[in-house]
Amino acid sequence: MLTEDVLTARFPRLRFAQLPTPLEEAPRLGAALGGVRVLIKRDDLTGLALGGNKARKLEWLIGEAKACGADCVITLGAGQSNHCRQTAAAAARAGLDCYLILSPPFHGEGQGNLLLDDLLGATLIRVENSDAVERATDDLIARLRAEGRQPYLIPVGGSNPVGALGYVLCALELHDQLARLGTTPSHLFVASGSAGTQGGLLVGARAAGDGYRIVGISPGSKAAGVISRVLAVANATAEKIGLPDRFGPSDVLVDDGYTGPAYGTLTAECIAAIRLLARTEGILLDPVYAGKAMAGLIDYIRRGVIPRDSTVVFIHTGGTPALFAYADELRGAR
Ligand SMILES: Cc1ncc(COP(=O)(O)O)c(C=O)c1O
Fold it and tell me: Is the pTM of this model over 0.85?
């Protein structure tokens, strides 16, 4: 049987996330949505520099970096990347230098995650567009090696089979929490970008024998692109941990209908979702990922895709520092 102890014994891990995260009832949200039972998995409370989903992945990624003898880490993301902010924090905890290669959009200059990256001591390298990222990464690795350093490269979003182990474990953790509540959800909603979160959940849910449908809501890419990333990371993760399961397109549901014009742009539905959860449950969502995932969940319920007598799980993946980078657009928005 796949358990946390089995994985922790097999692969290097550093423990710095606050786990297990709570699985909370959201009764006032459920009532506002016509009676659905909504359970919120609070991965915004993982505790590493204001929380979020990357803490789970970074336990394994930084664990591997240390095991490889790295003395610094490099990672990549958009200006307001939560992944970069949490990588900077995890590197600081592990005594590693951290280099962040940041590409547009640079929303909220000096605010939100950009502010925190700096406070956490990361070296920020800005590039003008996403085409320049690969070159900047290669140049940085070459320069660090020439200086005698040993860099460890963490991919975008920490989404490879190492990072995805964090979400395999999240699904096992969720399995135990649902069993204690004696409930079987029909769906699980989660924001899905670089796809290690959804991919890891897929593997963990299958290993735990849970049949809920995982709906990934895309914050930017077209659904087909996210689906192929989920499949790649899920299958590579299953192989890494020695599970016989493999996944195909019919196992993966991704909806890109809540993205809006582009990654990082606010939508009216996202703002409404942020306000609704804040005012019913006192929980803050972010404007780029979890707000859009909640907008998707609300719309599925309102359209009757999810019947009103169902139980659904919403994974709150964090990202709340970005609220402050979007203050001008959020202030007073209806
Ligand atoms: C707050 C938040 N939610 C969800 C995601 C998506 O996770 P993944 O990249 O594993 O798909 C991210 C990724 O950066 C994120 O920052």
Answer: yes
197, 254, 284, best to mutate for ligand 1 pocket (most atoms within 8 Å of CB): 197
CATH number at residue 59: 3.40.50.1100
Chain segment 163-201, per-residue pLDDT in tens:
999 999 999 999 999 999 999 999 999 999 999 999 999
Give the residue whose CA is nearest to atom 9 of ligand 1.
Answer: 194
Ligand 1 centroid from CA 80, angstroms: 12
Distance between CA atoms of residues 93 and 53, nearest Å: 17
Domain that holds residue 76: 54-158
Residue 17's closest CA among 101, 109, 108, 86?
86
Last residue of one domain, picked from the residues 110, 129, 158: 158
- What mean pLDDT value characterizes the chain? 97
What was the pLDDT predicted at 334? 67
For atom 16 of ligand 1, which residue has the closest CA?
82
Do 62 and 181 share a domain, yes or no?
A: no
189 and 149 belong to one structural domain? no
Ligand 1, atom nearest to 52 Cα: 1
Residue ranges with strand state E in the chain:
23-25, 37-42, 72-78, 97-103, 123-126, 151-153, 187-191, 213-217, 253-255, 311-316
pLDDT in tens, 252-262: 999 999 999 99
Cβ of 87 below 6 Å from ligand 1? no
42 alpha carbon – ligand 1 mean position (Å): 14
**81-113, pLDDT tens digit by residue?**
999 999 999 999 999 999 999 999 999 999 999
Q: State the Cα–Cα distance between residues 136 and 20, nearest whole angstrom.
A: 37
Domain-terminating residue out of 119, 139, 158: 158
- Token digits of residue 102: 């940041």
Catalytic residue among 81, 192, 218, 221: 81
